[in-house]
Amino acid sequence: MKFFNIDQHISVIADMKNIFNRLGHSIDDWCLSGHAYVFGRENDANKVPMLAGENWCSVMNEYKWIEFFDLYRNILDKYDGFIVTYPPVFAYLYGMFNKPIIVNVPIRYDYGMHTDKIKINQFNEYLAGDNIILVANNKFDKQYMKALGDLDSVHIPSLCDYTGMKYAGSINNILYYATKNIDFMESKSFQRKENILHSGYAWNDLTKFKAIVHLPYQISTMSIFEQYTANIPLFVPSIDYMMELYNEGIVLEHYTNYKLYNSKPGSIIPVNGIDPNEYNNAENVKYWLQFADYYDDEFMKHTQKFHSIDDLVNKLSTVNMSEISESMQIHNIHRREYVFTAWEKIIDAIK
């Protein structure tokens, strides 16, 4: 089968292209991401100027689906179906083609409309349609869609083995990921990625480090998928310690769109259960954290948790990194089998 995609993110669709190709199918895509160069390709904004830059906002806000259909029908009608990842609202683009639309959600699906009750309710109704196959690459977004839209989806983790990385651990340095320099990390001589790796670094540069510590800005990030599949030992704060750091404004800056854009806490539409968008409610946030990738013992076993900076230092000096990496490698066999089987079922159902 042949699928088509237009995307503002480079990694999610790259992962799907890799998987679908191995399953005997193809995905053609127009990339609107500013990180297209990471995969050695050009940005395709010239092919679809009506979606380039911030133009996509007006297309979505002004419901220009008919205009898109008229412009691109002759080009896109040859495809068996369409794929949407980022932003999820691009699912609207293909509705008039009356073909299957796989929506693989990697972020909060209300991106671009979270403060508009009418638009969210309309989108919920659209995503419940017969042509939509709803997938989430993390358990948080699966539960988020259920809570805000009563939408059922299939959870299929991203693999991201397109990097070709394999853990080496050849240097003793510890790398950490964060949106800014963190004083308590710097004081222990940990090195933030942006401070030590030059722009355009190779993926294999990451494999040399003894371990990578994440102070996540998000619930789900493609870099964690990439590094986990490469069997690199990963360290993240425990849920309790994550909440301490969250209350200090150090982590999860992009927790939901409501927090990211400093909107009034609390979902604008009724929620099934505990509201994930009450980002000022510590109990709510802590409850929802259990669905984050790095706490998912089903698909990210052996991710190491630390309870304080001192506990992190102790663990880094005492645990056997090779054993952790080997355990991850064994577990990744299960992950791959699950992911390929899950995608194969979806494609077979479309056939």
Features:
alpha/beta, 14 helices, 2 domains, Rossmann fold, 351 residues, 6-stranded parallel beta sheet, globular, 11 strands
Description:
By secondary structure, the protein is α/β, with parallel strands linked by helices. The chain is built from 14 helices and 11 strands. The radius of gyration is 20 Å and the shape is globular.
Query: What CATH architecture of the largest domain do you see?
Result: 3-Layer(aba) Sandwich
Main beta sheet: 6 strands, parallel
Average pLDDT reading: 95
Question: How many separate domains?
Answer: 2
- Basic shape: globular
Strand portion = 5-15%
Give me the count of strands. Answer: 11
If strands are numbered along the chain, what order do they take across the biggest sheet? 2-1-3-4-5-6
What is the fold-level CATH name, i.e. the topology of the largest domain? Rossmann fold
Give the termini separation.
8 Å
- Going by helix content, strand content and strand pairing, the class is alpha/beta
Helical content, roughly? 25-40%
Q: What is the succession of H and E elements?
A: EHEHHEEHEHEEHEHHEHEHHHEHH
Tally of contiguous helical segments: 14
Any chance you could write out the topology, listing elements then pairs?
Elements: E1 2-7, H1 11-22, E2 26-31, H2 55-61, H3 65-76, E3 81-84, E4 101-105, H4 117-127, E5 132-136, H5 139-149, E6 154-155, E7 174-177, H6 183-186, E8 191-192, H7 193-196, H8 204-207, E9 211-214, H9 222-229, E10 234-237, H10 239-247, H11 257-260, H12 282-289, E11 304-306, H13 309-318, H14 321-350
Parallel strand pairs: 1-2, 1-3, 3-4, 4-5, 5-6, 7-8, 7-9, 9-10, 10-11
Helix pairs in contact: 10-12
